[in-house]
Write a structure and sequence with these properties.
The complex is a heterodimer. By secondary structure, chain A is an all-alpha fold. Helix content of chain A is about 85%, strand content about 0%. In chain A, helix 7 runs antiparallel to helix 8. Chain A starts with a helix and ends with a helix. By secondary structure, chain B is an alpha/beta fold. Helix content of chain B is about 35%, strand content about 25%. Chain B has 10 helices and 10 strands. In chain B, the strands form 2 sheets. A 6-stranded mixed sheet of chain B has the order 6-7-8-3-9-10, with helices on both faces. In chain B, helix 5 packs across helix 6. The longest helix of chain B is centred in the C-terminal third of the chain and has 18 residues. The two termini of chain B are about 15 Å apart. Chains A and B meet through helix 7 and helix 8 of A and helix 2, helix 4 and helix 6 of B.
Chain lengths: ~210, ~260
């Protein structure tokens, strides 16, 4: 039985695990954006926050993923369901690129433009919404893209704690020493990562300020 | 010699400005800008001229002393209404790259809540005022030449019809021909609009041409204020050094018009 046979025969399960995988990545990315963008703005606006915020995000990044899943397991509400736990872990990893790119994007806006806006009487809020965020958008977006691509790969490990996703095939394949099973998880995951990279890259280009 | 303090639109009273690290950028500045005049702040980089300008619209706040606009200390006024009542033009134009020409010009009117019709009419009026074709309204700044961008910058600053205009080397980055063109047009415009203008430059030629008076600055201090004509004959060593550096033929460019 070759790889494509396997996919065809198990297409329902492949589809289910792929959707699970997308769910883990999608929700965690969304959360990372909701948390990371404000933190990035905070550290761009008040330099005091820059080090603690980016430092923490950096530190999280250094925790091995399997260990992070393990650490979070005993946390009360989280540990009850594997997907919650996986989503939190993925969110934490996705924070760094989102925060860093929001910070860089806002800091990278031409100072002359910001100064002109301020000099003409824009409030801080107007400056942020009308000038800094729109002009930083493509940089922020490229951070999100990195976060998504990394998360797709990382989410395969979520299967280790029973959160599902394409990692299921991989871990099962490892246990059964079955390469086809491993590939049935790895290849769709790679395809997901590549298409996310491509699709978001295309969007990012369209967001580029002129 | 100086007008009474009440006649001044902008007044500096013993103003000093220091960076947070204690480095003084400006000290003991006393200066009055009269209604309808173009006061040029002339000096080399680091002389404090841009700092002086930014103290007027409170992009910077004096460390000591007081800046008054229309008789009111700027420290007492709301900073946002103050800035919206003062036009501001800077060297790189500072146009918003993601806004069309029209939206750039309409910036202040829009946040001030003008109706769309009024804004549209105003934008058209301003475009013709600064000598731009109406069809440029839908362009983005990167599609314009440097001279066109500066014209848009001036139009944007004039949008809400402020009585005061601050210009920080507005024509500094332009090629000589375009600069000459814009200087001439701005003089014509100024004769019509009669704004109170504070104009920063390091170019004596430009200062003589644009200024009703020239405030010469050096190392954070005001050295002297002179009319363009007097500047050329001044015995002040720094003024004389400027005149020497810029060579002959300066008499011809002296601002004959305003005030």
């Amino acid at each position: 039985m070759n790889f494509f046979h396997f996919l065809a025969k198990n297409r329902e399960q492949v589809l289910e695990l792929t959707l699970e995988h997308l769910w883990l990545v999608g929700v965690s990315t969304l959360l990372a954006v909701l948390v990371g963008v404000p933190l990035g703005i905070l550290s761009a606006r008040w330099p005091f926050w820059n080090r603690p915020v980016l430092g923490t995000a950096n530190l999280i990044q250094t925790i091995p993923s399997l260990a992070l899943f393990g650490f979070l397991l005993p946390v009360p509400w989280l540990g009850e369901r594997a997907d919650r736990l996986a989503i939190l872990a993925l969110t934490l990893y996705a924070l760094l690129p989102v925060i860093r790119n929001t910070y860089t994007g806002i800091r990278g806006v031409d100072p002359a433009v910001v100064e002109a806006g301020r000099g003409m009487g824009l409030t801080d809020g107007q400056l942020l919404w009308k000038v800094q965020l729109p002009l930083a958008m493509s940089v922020i977006f490229s951070g999100v893209r990195v976060a998504v691509v990394v998360s797709v790969g990382l989410a395969t490990i979520a299967a280790a704690i029973g959160a599902g996703g394409l990692g299921e095939f991989i871990f099962r394949g490892l246990a059964m020493v079955n390469n086809q099973l491993i590939l049935a998880g790895a290849i769709p995951a790679a395809v997901l990562a590549l298409s996310a990279d491509f699709g978001l890259g295309w969007l990012e280009k369209r967001l580029q300020p002129r | 010699m100086e007008p009474t303090a009440d006649g001044a639109v902008i007044e500096f009273r013993d103003v000093a400005y220091m960076l947070p690290n204690g480095q003084p950028l400006l000290a003991g500045l006393n200066l009055q800008v009269r209604r309808g005049e173009t006061l040029v702040l002339l000096g080399r980089s680091g002389s404090g001229k841009t700092t002086t300008l930014k103290l007027i619209n409170r992009l910077l706040t004096p460390t000591s002393g007081e800046v008054r606009v229309n008789g009111e200390p700027t420290a007492a006024a709301g900073v946002i209404p103050l800035r919206r009542s003062i036009g501001y033009v800077i060297q790189e134009s500072g146009l918003f790259p993601h806004y069309t020409v029209e939206r750039n010009i309409a910036l202040v009117p829009r946040i001030e809540g003008w109706t769309a019709d009024r804004i549209h009419a105003r934008v058209e009026e301003l475009l013709s005022l600064v000598g731009l074709e109406p069809q440029l309204a839908s362009r983005y700044p990167h599609q314009l030449s440097g001279g066109q961008r500066q014209r848009v910058g001036v139009a944007r600053a004039l949008a809400a019809d402020p009585a005061i205009l601050l210009m920080d080397e507005p024509f500094g980055a332009l090629d000589p021909l375009t600069r000459d063109e814009l200087q001439r047009e701005f003089l014509r415009l100024q004769r019509r609009l009669n704004k109170t203008v504070v104009f920063v430059t390091h170019d004596l030629h430009e200062a003589l041409r644009m200024g009703s008076r020239i405030a010469l600055m050096e190392a954070g201090k005001l050295v002297t204020i002179l009319s363009p004509k007097d500047f050329l004959r001044s015995n002040d060593p720094l003024a004389a050094a400027y005149v020497r550096a810029f060579g002959n033929g300066l008499d011809a460019v002296v601002n004959g018009g305003a005030s």
